From TrEMBL:
Lineage of source species: Bacteria, Pseudomonadati, Pseudomonadota, Alphaproteobacteria, Rhodobacterales
SUPFAM superfamilies the record matches: Periplasmic binding protein-like II (SSF53850), Winged helix' DNA-binding domain (SSF46785)
Keywords: DNA-binding, Transcription, Transcription regulation
Cited InterPro entries: LTTR, LysR_HTH_N, LysR_subst-bd, WH-like_DNA-bd_sf, WH_DNA-bd_sf
Domain HTH lysR-type: 5-62
The protein's name: Transcriptional regulator, LysR family
Amino acid sequence: MPRNLDLTALRSFVTVAEVGGVTRAAGHLHLTQSAVSMQLKRLEDSLGLSLIDRSARTVTLTPTGEQLLSYARRMLTLNDEAIARMTDDGFEGEIVLGVPHDILYPAIPTFLAAFAHTYPRLKVRLLSLPTRTLKDMYARGECDAILTTEETTGEGGETLLSLPLVWAGATGGTAHRDRPLNFAFCRNCIFSPLARAALDRAGIEWHSVVDSPSDRAAEVAVMADLAVYVILDQTLPVGVSKLPANAGLPDLPMQNINLYRSNTLPASVSEDLARLLRDNYARLANTVRLAAE
């Protein structure tokens, strides 16, 4: 049958080792000297080992005691962290975060994991909707924070990263050579008006091959090599590749990934949310920089 170490006795043991005596440890722990001594004896008895060299004038640990000390410190650290996290009811409930589908990857999964670790009792409800829809919901107070993809940055927004808009097609595909160009975009795509205008200015005839409110429908057409589409660099799904410069398609503008936070969020939660998103997009920015070198 598994045996369990007494955390209270371990705390007395660690304190004695750190302050150099039972009397001092008793003062730190707000216990009597005899209570600390009894806990040490109970710990030794439970292990059947001698942990403290009592023959010396000052308290010293036996080699076995030194080995246990390392384990004990880690166990107490985990215990204290768990108690602090599980009993802190300062931030409970739910926040609503809106993110457009095309920037869910690669930054958002790691952000969500880090935020859940920081606030284990605060749930995040993730909405994946087009930028226009998210901005309308945010204006109505239906979202606590949103990420958007825009050419500019609106009032109260913070730009986390700027990425180029690129033409993309099926990896190894040939759809970009077709004329008229088969162009896939969903009805709510904020990028498609920019791409259509660029094609018109370049005199490239095109037609739409998708009629759907879903980004996934456009992705399916592109993956099947039936069409091309536009997407933010570094956010391409598996099976889709950026088209080369010699594909003959016009240049596209940069786009900002912006963060908007409601002032109804608690200040510390809002700042931690922003910090974690900044950290994740900073790593993505570094990836972009390395790819350009």
